[in-house]
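Try it yourself: sequence plus NAP, in.
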Amino acid sequence: MSLTRVHNLSISLDGFATGEPQSAESPFGHAGERLHGWMMATRFWSKTDGTIGADHAFAARHDPGIGAEIMGANKFGPPGWHDDPNWKGWWGVNPPFHTPTFVLTHRPRPPVEMEGGTTFFFLDASPSDALQSAREAAGGKDVRIGGGPSVVREFVSAGLVDYMHLVQVPIVLGRGVRLWDGLEALEEQYDIEAVSTPSGVTHLTFAVKNN
Ligand SMILES: NC(=O)c1ccc[n+]([C@@H]2O[C@H](COP(=O)([O-])OP(=O)(O)OC[C@H]3O[C@@H](n4cnc5c(N)ncnc54)[C@H](OP(=O)(O)O)[C@@H]3O)[C@@H](O)[C@H]2O)c1
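Structure, out:
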């Protein structure tokens, strides 16, 4: 069965997955690159060099078995992108998704086909309807909920996430967008495991309980 998965979602000790304010110059606001330093050090990210230890092993699970991604409007672009008809995401002509990619937005626009297999589809839809569209496009493979935190929270709240890999980074951001708000007692729904690695981060996996 097709699973709904979250991978490599990096959060601070106080639960923020981005700082503020988000902008074209600073996509993660005052967090800068601190949330993702652990991943950028791995070969998964840097391709030609980088570490190949435990952080790499977790990071590299991002892609296998994925047939479509769903992301939020604020991951797709900085504030104001809706008003730029030429905005096609942060990632250049060949984005790293290589699958149909569904951008949730209240201001949808026609699909944009990129190089390398990524086509951006823009949807104003409930989480369950968006997931149905993504599942159809994924051809039996899994669907990744790519973030940001608001969209992950929305899908977790709706009970639509089967597996979630979070990475707790030892920084305190104090402000930004928090993942956890409203998700009280989430531990009752998931089997949770934690593994700390020598880089100083803690990988947390949430596997939905089979009731
Ligand atoms: N820490 C990490 O690992 C990680 C991973 C991914 C992204 N990020 C960062 O997270 C930040 C973005 O996260 P965020 O929480 O601010 O926003 P987000 O989750 O990317 O997007 C939220 C926005 O998506 C649209 N949206 C959400 N649900 C919708 C629905 N059901 N129907 C229609 N539109 C819907 C709305 O935008 P509109 O109303 O404007 O259309 C909403 O304001 C960025 O800084 C990004 O770089 C961090």
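One thing you can check immediately is this: Residues 8-10, 17-18, 22, 27-28, 35, 72-75, 104-107, 124-127, 147-151, 154, 177 surround NAP (CB under 6 Å).
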